[in-house]
Amino acid sequence: MDIDSEVDQGTQNALLGLVHRHTGISMTAKKWTLLQGRLRPRLRALALRNYRDYLALLENTPDEVRNFINLVTTNETSFFRTPRVWDYFAQHYLPRWFDAHRGAVFHLWSAAASSGEEAYSAAMLCEEFRARHPSFQYQIHATDISSQVLASAMTGQFHGRSIDGLKAARPAMLAKYFRASAGGYAVIPALRTHIMFSEHNLYRPLAAREAFDLALLRNVLIYFETADQECVIENVRQSLAPDGMLIVGESESLSRLKTGFAFEQPLIYRNHGAPHDRTA
Ligand SMILES: C[S@@+](CC[C@H](N)C(=O)[O-])C[C@H]1O[C@@H](n2cnc3c(N)ncnc32)[C@H](O)[C@@H]1O
What is its EC number (predicted)? Predict the structure, then answer.
C-alpha cells in the first residue's frame, strides 16, 4: 500500500500538533499536504509503512525530533535580504552606535539565522565599518532551531542562488570577503571568526554572556500565532541591552502585538520595556 493513501485525521492532527510543540510553527489542517510532502522522503528513507508509524517513531525516539525539525522549517534566506534594512544598518545604526558606545564591543544576534547569509551580511558591513574605524570591535551570534541549516552556515561555504544573488547585488563584497572553493565560494576566515553559531529555539531564553545591542528576528514571526509571537519577542527582548534594537522581516510588524518595544521606523524597533536582570 502507498504510504500516502488514507492518512487518518488523528494522525494528521497529531503530526501538525508536533510541529507546533517542537518549533512553535503554526500549521492548520490546510497545511497537511505541505507537511506530508516534507515528511515523505524521510518515511521512504526509514522504510516506514505509513505516517502513523512515523508518529510513533517521533514520540518514542527523541533523536528523530531533530530530523523532524529540519524537515518542517522553511529556511529561505539570502545575502543582504531587504536592502533597505542593510542601508539603515551601515549608514545610520552603526555610526550612531559607535559614537554612543566608544570602547565597547558591538554584539549582534541573528536570531533565526538559517544558513548564515544574514549573519555574514552583517559581518561584511561590520568589517567595512571597522576599516574606517579601526577601534570598532564586533561579535555576532547566529542561532537557529534547525541543526541542518546551522551546520551549513558554520562551514561558511555558499553556492548556487545564494552566490548568484550576492554577485548581482554586491559584487565587490563577493570579491573581498569570499574565495572560490570546490563548487562555490568560502567566506574568508577573517569574517568567519567574528561569528559564533549555536542551536536555539526562540521559545526559550537564550543563555548568552553579553546583552545584544541589536537582534535580527527576520522572516520567522510570520510562522507563529499572535500569542506565540509575543512570547518569542519577549524572549528576544530579555537578551537585549536596555538601549537595544530589534529588526523584523519585511512582512512583519509589531504594531498589533503587546511587546516591550517602541516603533522606530518600519521594521525597526527600540527596547522600551523593563530592564532585564541578567544576573537572575
Ligand atoms: C525563512 S528563514 C529566515 C532566515 C533569515 N532570518 C532571513 O530573514 O533571511 C526562518 C528560519 O527560522 C527558523 N526557525 C523556525 N522556528 C524557529 C524557532 N522556534 N526557533 C528558532 N528558529 C526557528 C527556521 O529554521 C528558519 O531557518
Answer: 2.1.1.80
Same domain, 136 and 176: yes
The x, y and z cell numbers of residue 123, run together, are: 559581518
3-state secondary structure of 68: helix
pLDDT digits (tens, 9 = 90+) for 129-178: 999 999 999 999 999 999 999 999 999 999 999 999 999 999 999 999 99
pLDDT of residue 18: 98
Cell numbers for 196:
559564533
Contact call for residues 218 and 82 (beta carbons, < 8 A): yes
Domain that holds residue 57: 9-72
Q: How far apart are CA 89 and CA 95, in angstroms?
A: 9
Which residue's CA is the closest to the ligand 1 atom numbered 7?
A: 77
Q: How far is the CA of 143 from the centre of ligand 1 (A)?
A: 9
Closest among 117, 114, 115, 89 to 202, alpha carbons compared: 114
Asked if 59 and 120 sit in the same domain, the reply is no
Which three three-digit cell numbers place residue 248? 523584523
Distance from residue 96's CA to the centre of ligand 1 (Å): 28
Whether residues 101 and 232 fall in one domain? yes
User: Does residue 189 lie within any of the structural domains?
Assistant: yes
256 in Cβ contact with 226 (< 8 Å): yes
Pairwise CA distance, residues 216 & 204, whole Å: 16
Residue 116 neighbours by CB distance under 10 Å: 29
